[in-house]
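Sample 1 of the test manifest.
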Amino acid sequence: MQVSSAYGLHPQNYIAPSGHYSQGPGKMTSLPSESQCGDYYSGLYTVPTQNVVTPSTVNQQPGAQQMYGRGPPAPHIVGSTSGSFQGAASSASHLYTSASQPYSFVNHYNNPVMYSANSSATSQGFPSTCGNYAMSTVSNAAYPNVSYRSLPAGDPYGQMFTSQNVLTVRPLKDSSFSGHNTPISHPSPLPPPPSQQHQQQQSLSGYNTLSWSAPGLQSTQDSLIRNHTGSLDTDSNNPTHTDSLSCPVMQNVQPPKPSPVVSTVLSGTSSTRTPPAANHPVKPVASVPQPAELLQQKGMQHGEYVNNQASSAPSPLSSASDDEEEEDEDEEAGVDSSSTTSSASPMPNSYDALEGGSYPDMLSSSASSPAPDPAPEPDPVPTLASAVPQPTKMAKPFGYGYPTLQPGYQNATAPLNSGVQSSSPVYSGFQHYAQYPGMNQLSSSLGGLSLQSSPQPDSLRPVNLTQERNILPMTPIWAPVPNLNVDLRKLNCSPDSFRCTLTNIPQTQALLNKAKLPLGLLLHPFRDLTQLPVITSNTIVRCRSCRTYINPFVSFIDQRRWKCNLCYRVNDVPEEFMYNPLTRSYGEPHKRPEVQNSTVEFIASSDYMLRPPQPAVYLFVLDVSHNAVEAGYLTVLCQSLLENLDKLPGDSRTRIGFMTFDSTIHFYNLQEGLSQPQMLIVSDIDDVFLPTPPDSLLVNLYESKELIKDLLNALPNMFTNTRETHSALGPALQAAFKLMSPTGGRVSVFQTQLPSIGAGLLQSREDPNQRSSTKVVQHLGPATDFYKKLALDCSGQQTAVDLFLLSSQYSDLASLACISKYSAGCIYYYPSFHYTHNPSQAEKLHKDLKRYLTRKIGFEAVMRIRCTKGLSMHTFHGNFFVRSTDLLSLANINPDAGFAVQLSIEENLTDTSLVCFQTALLYTSSKGERRIRVHTLCLPVVSSLADVYAGVDVQAAICLLANMAVDRSVSSSLSDARDALVNAVVDSLSAYGSTVSNLQHSALIAPSSLKLFPLYVLALLKQKAFRTGTSTRLDDRVYAMCQIKSQPLVHLMKMIHPNLYRIDRLTDEGAIHVNDRVVPQPPLQKLSAEKLTREGAFLMDCGYVFYIWIGKSCDNNFIEDVLGYPNFASIPQKMTHLPELDTLPSERARSFITWLRDSRPLSPLLHVVKDESPATTEFFQHLIEDRTEAAFSYYEFLLHIQQQICK
Amino acid sequence: MEAVVFVFSLLDCCALIFLSVYFIITLSDLECDYINARSCCSKLNKWVIPELIGHTIVTVLMLISLHWFIFLLNLPVATWNIYRFIMVPSGNMGVFDPTEIHNRGQLKSHMKEAMIKLGFHLLCFFMYLYSMILALIND
């Protein structure tokens, strides 16, 4: 049951919209405050004791058994988790306030969504009180520690821990814990009312968890849909979690404990659950909850059973109430238990083998252990064995029958194994288990085996591309889930932050070469996260040789040593790490949040600073030449700035400055005390100098706010009559660099034309007649190294330059972009910007600026990517400067930046079954805190080509290919890049055809995992960046390339392959709920004109722009209800907004569009395109499956590929 | 006269050998993270032209003094040097570009190139030495 509860929580972590860190105090309502207090203390008290307590207590408790019967979950969780707050909190929240309270501060991170999720539980048939109750507790819990910082290590650990519960379920210890805890939690008088309610509703003990888990699941699904983040893996994991989780803990952390017990129990549960897990991913949305619930019920009961036993069984051994004693005993107890398992119990062969391979330390520790208590072993065997084979039936009998089982529970391990062997389903579960410990030692063959049983096979199903017409799935495509055992999968990094093109890493470079697929990582490291454990500790534990941060995939050799998973060095666990601030327990390094979460953030000490954290400094460099004034962007910018001045990220030291330039450079003295802003003009652009000390040009935002506002109000009109047409961008940037170099920070440059005088002047290089040339596209690279050099200087001084290019003519973005590319800035391009002629662009700029100004920012950042020995990184993509082999220097990091890395396999990975990748992003937050955000991704290694193909993440592969193609087109030529793209498809498909599938060669066969590959490559060939034959302005093309390089995968995919929806018949079927809004989920349509009917209306989501295409004979009702016009003829040619009409179709359409919009950083433009209007060409360009004059249709492309393969 | 030519070639070759060694050391420093890409490249770019000139001079000298074999031996390397220098894209900061040196295995290929040149110059060194002694004896 613990497991299940954990599930519920776990998915939620990822879900919730960002609200984080601070919890709304308002939430704490329903519970009587007194009870909370009381419980809180008791809880605190108990926590430390948990470790200590030896088994006996439970029985001593009055009515403990009854408690079990009714509301066991709470006690269990508390007891079992002993270390992990989360689980406790979550489970407890349902049941008792008391239990939850102590732990609850963990829940800081829960945000509104979570609550909603809980509340949703009620809808599922649970008593509403339950939902509310849970909510309240959670929030309350959070409340006491409002700021995560105050709680050093504690708060951040957030939800993830729930998963931990599962892990920790080791019978022996747990039993003792649970016993101990139970008294505490139960006795507390307060909880009864609510709990009783619960209990009445469901007499089964398991029910609590059930309720909990159910909402969790639901919420996950919602979240999946909602956020796009939806990681299938979490989803799929949920059901299966139990077994795997237990394993790792056992192995790593606590060798002494009776691992077998855990594994067995878990495996039993897992076996029952596995089937649903497999199903789960397939139908993500509505259908899932039910089976999951059922399963979970079963699972819960198992868990319960275990726990109960645990609590009861230990009782004879000892009853210890003293804390200190307990602590000592705890250690001993652990040892004892281990001894029991290893020495005393006769092990089935398989287990022995496993243990030998994976748990070497266990043995040793057991040997030393003093007193084994082997007694109970024999009993459990029969019962468990019987239970395991028929998992489905287990639930009820177990729940009721536990009393009889009690004595034997300790030994459950041994029997379980036997049971496992006998029954096949269990066996598979067990394999997973086996695989985990094997992390380093087990051969990858196991991985291969498990592959067969896991949901993967579908990805290898051969697809005949030329015959299958509808290869595009109806629902968005999720990242494939690495074929890991379930607990690892659950711990693994979210695919939104970290993805690999091959989720099964080939063992050798030869194998990779054979597969002809690109190997690389796609990163989105600074993504806005809703759930992020933040850790404050004096020592950040890292490998001593490779400096890897400790992560969930390291193995603990014993209590005091851990083995790095990247370089395999054995390191000591520092003293501080032995103490777990979450549980306030000692000796459980494996339960530390660092080891429980693959994405964590450390607050770094001064060791990680070269200088004290600098204030946030923002400098705006504005073009005010005639061209710029004409375009009128200043109005929009100043307006946005005025609106968002208070929301600029930063602390009280935040500084801001302004510069303008035409053929001269203007500085603005805004020093406090002046009556009005003072403009200083420097006309010597050959040798730029600062007219006054930087302090008066970069001023404190709060001290000089009035002056800044004055300036912003005045700026738009200051240059209205200028006749200066020249633009001295280069000198202005040099001046900005000088101004910023003492502190570093962010420079935002607004440029509207080709820089024409001073250093860095550029010539027009574009020949308009060549725009639609099919042969050579020149000038994709920079014309001068001026901007690159300056960017590197800036990067060295921790200054990033963000470029906003708002020009109607050619401005040589290829050269200008360098200033941002190498200083880790970002590039925005608004072609033909004009504030009156092109109001939609102006509005877009306004919205983009809002996001730009208020989004999170990190200064002085460096990012290092490490990977398991044997792999090496050789090419990086994104905006940054590679300072040394694996160190990316990022003057600024923003949440919208994505990166890609190409990998090669330098040494064979034959002696490992898992590889890990870790990115560590060290940055100074806008509040002046040095922080390190660490993501760790773990992937299996495979030795067969089929497995490699089975694990292809086609979206990631396409994005990486796009990055490589950009490099190729700059360094070589566009046609080379296009050829390379086509060859990528040809090579991989022919390699697949010749080695893996032995089907007829006449057909074009692709594995199911790769079936979208040709389509996406065709989409790339028709993308602005790479297309030929269609008129494309050079700047547009270069901008598309910049975007490919710097956008994270989710956004990039939409740019490459837009999503098409039919929106004239939106229904609520399958709709999701976001913030009280119903968002319909129309199916994806393939990008072909054959899908467009004249009776329909279609929405195309191209990432940066939306098109709504209205068919000629579209239903007038739709036109009237949604567009607000009576009929097709009256729709205007230019329409960029949907009116807010009070009709159901309009509401649906708008909520759908807003929902799509909210998912991306830059607000997309909306164009309503009437059928047969001139604007349709633009729309039809995106229908990539269709033929154009210059490019293949999808079918032709397939034939072309087939031809190439046959050659 | 011939002796003078070879004495000069020998000295020039020594300089080129030292330069190759310097390239190798600097590049391996970069490989080991002892220096950053920026300073490495600016150090190396400074010496690209001297190397080019030094080698071209020897090549031309051999042509003038009609040592065909040695000239033909030097020609490919000299051509490569010039080609490499000319083909630097306009946006790059020289033959060694700090923003690209870590990409696409450029560092490795630069390293390999420096190694090959070192071997080549050593070969030339002994050849010049032999020729010089021969010339001195003949005189």
